[in-house]
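User: I'm new to structure prediction. If I give you an amino acid sequence, what do you actually give back? Let's try with this one:
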Amino acid sequence: MRYIVFAAALIIAASSAHAQSRSGNSSGGLYGSSPSYPTYGTGSNPRSNSVDGYTTDRGTYVAPHQRTNPNGTQYDNYNSRGNTNPYSGNTGTRSPRY
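Assistant: Good question. You get back a string of structure tokens that encode the predicted 3D arrangement of the chain. For your 98 residues, that looks like this:
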């Protein structure tokens, strides 16, 4: 009888641990437990810097704006799908390339 109770408790504990590992942080990304595959909308990078206005080589003026600091991924940029720019309130629409 003790063995049955012990086995049942062991099964419940193992099932609970497995459920917790699967639920994790559903947004994934850099600021939580990451799934093994990339997801959109990982949450915007909390660090940003301001960019002065400039004119491109093709003559287009780009107004001053805020951007996330470079960090080797586009999944946490303001313009990435699922993320929101806290300065403008716009929701990102671009698919990250890397």
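You can read the tokens as a compact description of the fold. Here is one thing that stands out. The chain is about 20% helix and 10% strand.
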